[in-house]
Specification:
Structural class: mainly alpha
Oligomer: single chain
Radius of gyration: 12 Å
Number of helices: 4
Low-confidence stretches: none
Order of helices and strands: HHHEEH
Shape: globular
Length: 78
């Protein structure tokens, strides 16, 4: 399931390359509850696919590994 969420996050970042929204803003945009966002982000951070930006505010960025995984997902399911 988390791979699908990573793909959604990857697509979000592709559309918003110059911004660093909070994980709650991303969750709202993608239709996830706060609890779902926290679970998904925690998993993705632990896998090295997403990085926290700063300590306060819950801002995240997709990592190089996350971008690569999103690209692989595109190739696999196109």
């Amino acid at each position: 399931m988390e791979l699908e969420e990573l793909k959604k996050l990857y697509d979000f970042y592709e559309k918003n390359r110059n911004s660093y929204p909070s994980m709650n803003e991303i969750g709202q945009e993608l239709g996830f509850s706060v609890d779902e966002v926290e679970r998904i982000v925690s998993y993705l951070v632990n896998e090295g696919l997403v990085d926290y930006i700063g300590i306060v505010g819950g801002h995240i960025s997709i990592s190089h590994k996350g971008i690569h995984s999103g690209q692989l997902y595109d190739r696999q399911f196109l």
